[in-house]
Specification:
Blueprint: E1 24-28, E2 31-34, E3 42-51, E4 53-54, E5 57-58, E6 66-75, E7 78-85, H1 89-97, E8 128-131, E9 136-139, E10 146-148, E11 155-158, E12 175-176, E13 183-189, E14 195-201, E15 207-214, E16 225-227, E17 230-235, E18 238-240, H2 242-246, E19 256-258, E20 264-270, E21 276-282, E22 286-295, E23 301-308, H3 312-320, E24 331-339, E25 343-351, E26 355-360, E27 372-376, E28 390-395, E29 400-405, E30 410-412, E31 416-420, E32 423-435, E33 440-447, E34 456-459, E35 469-474
Antiparallel strand pairs: 1-7, 2-34, 3-6, 3-35, 4-5, 6-7, 8-9, 9-10, 10-11, 12-13, 13-14, 14-15, 16-17, 17-20, 18-19, 20-21, 22-23, 23-24, 24-25, 26-27, 27-28, 28-29, 30-32, 31-32, 32-33, 33-34
Length: 475
């Protein structure tokens, strides 16, 4: 158990996570500058860790924080926002006890070592969101999703999507086909050799097809790509040293080992049958996130990935929870060309600027070359100590990067694309911004084509800290 002191506020971003963040009810959001675009109708949902301590004990990793959802509804009457913790079973138990009771990604279970044997870890429901026609799912890596009310964010309870039986997990990084409405996802079942469980759901989220593929050891798989008729996985050379974790001597995070000699493995899966088309191995790297994938005219699969040279990113993210970081973890945008049968034909870096959280146009997911929107660092900052301070748009056809630098001590989250209902090729970028200069949070709206200056800034009632992922649900 980590019992470190309160996090340092050396950098402005640290103030956002220094204290547990308060919920707020549905509130009309004031316009601080500009005006809301006339055609913008729908809801921004965002998910991330909002509480990193309880009972005087600090959590061990940024990934351990209790999940809270921000919803910003855009209607004819303007914008309203609300912020609520996901009321998981474990969260409610810890609220009642006012202490940490469960282990998680970066923490072992508190108390004597025998408390840790066979005790489940806490579902923090803090990583992403999936907006379905009748519910919002709060997603996490290691368990089932939690269903919430789309309007009020009231937690309805754990949801098995009619298929997550026998302990199956559901990843935070689903892919939704923009034309069929099908939702593809996966989960990892640990064991001596883990299983990659594949899921296909209809547009309501109900799982209609499943398959399982055996992996080597227990790797860390966070995301994948939908590329035309294929699902493509890259499995980095990170493996879990299981015995210390099972014995309660190590957290899951500390049990993960970088083993570059294994190389990065890839797997191509047919989306209709969920059967493996090909598997292979290439040079070692680590990735959290992919941008997009598609099949080009020659039949090659093109995959855009934000790539790290090693696994130092995990140490950096662990340090975030303390409020003071010092580990450098540079990630840049790369493109992989892959023959579905023969394997990888080319790997090249397409953008050298440190970046993360790639987002593509929803109607082009898995289909064709879409511009990629990213979080990027401001020029000249020490990336070992700072968080992303700008958002950007990379156009593959012109190889141009357009950057919106928000200024010193302002931290925008993952840029979410909100399409214009009259023309999906046009739209807006909606991002949550923590302003460390004033210790406040805002919602900023940009024209997706230009990113030159915000069209509108909306004030939130209180701080919403840096988070992970979100989605846009059109009205």
């Amino acid at each position: 158990m980590h019992t470190t002191s309160k996090p340092s506020t050396q950098k402005a971003w640290a103030k956002a996570i220094a204290q547990p963040v308060a919920e707020f009810p549905s509130t009309a959001l004031p316009i601080l500058s500009g005006e809301i675009p006339a055609g913008l109708r729908g809801t921004l949902y965002r998910n991330g860790p909002a509480r990193l301590e309880r009972g005087g004990k600090r959590m061990g990793h940024w990934f351990d924080g209790d999940g809270a959802i921000l919803a910003v509804h855009f209607t004819d009457a303007g914008a309203t926002g609300l912020y609520r913790y996901v009321q998981t079973k474990e969260y409610k138990e810890e609220v009642a006890a006012d202490q940490l009771l469960y282990g998680n990604y970066g923490m072992t279970t508190p108390g004597p070592i025998w408390n840790q044997w066979f005790k489940p870890i806490k579902n923090v429901a803090n990583t992403s969101v999936l907006a379905l026609p009748d519910k919002l799912l709060a997603l996490w890596e290691g368990g089932k999703p939690y269903a919430l009310d789309l309007q009020t964010l009231e937690t309805r309870g754990e949801d098995d999507l009619t298929g997550l039986n026998n302990g199956l997990t559901y990843s935070a990084h689903y892919k939704r086909d923009p034309h069929t409405g099908e939702v593809f996802n996966f989960g990892i079942s640990p064991g001596l050799n883990a299983h990659l469980n594949l899921y296909k759901s209809d547009r309501t989220g109900k799982i209609v097809q499943k398959a399982a593929v055996t992996l080597e050891g227990v790797p860390l798989v966070h995301d994948f790509v939908l590329a035309g008729q294929y699902l493509v996985f890259f499995i980095p050379p990170v493996r879990l040293n299981t015995l210390p974790v099972l014995a309660g001597l190590s957290s899951f995070s500390d049990g993960l080992e970088w083993q570059p000699q294994l190389g990065t493995q890839f797997m191509v899966v047919d989306r209709e049958t969920l059967s493996v088309v090909s598997r292979g191995e290439t040079e070692p790297w680590y990735q959290w996130h992919f941008a997009n994938g598609y099949v080009d005219a020659s039949g090659s699969v093109i995959v855009d990935v934000v790539r790290y040279e090693d696994f130092q990113t995990n140490q950096y993210l662990k340090e975030v929870a303390t409020g003071q970081t010092h580990t450098t973890a540079k990630s840049t945008l790369w493109q992989v060309h892959l023959d579905p049968i023969a394997g990888i034909t080319a790997i090249q870096q397409v953008l050298d600027r440190p970046c993360e959280f790639p987002v593509v146009l929803p109607h082009l997911v898995g289909q064709s070359l879409s511009p990629t929107f990213l979080s990027v660092h401001r020029q000249g900052v020490d990336i070992s100590q700072e968080m992303f301070g700008a958002i950007a748009r990379f156009d593959y056809q012109t190889e141009t990067l357009t950057v919106a630098d928000l200024g010193e001590n302002r931290y925008p989250m993952e840029p979410i694309y909100a399409p214009d209902p009259q023309n999906p090729e046009q739209g807006w970028i909606v991002t949550l911004v923590y302003d460390g200069n004033t210790d406040t949070s805002e919602v900023w709206l940009f024209d997706s084509d230009r990113l030159d200056q915000p069209l509108c800034r909306l004030g939130l009632p209180n701080v919403v800290p840096m988070d992970f992922h979100g989605c846009w649900k059109p009205a």
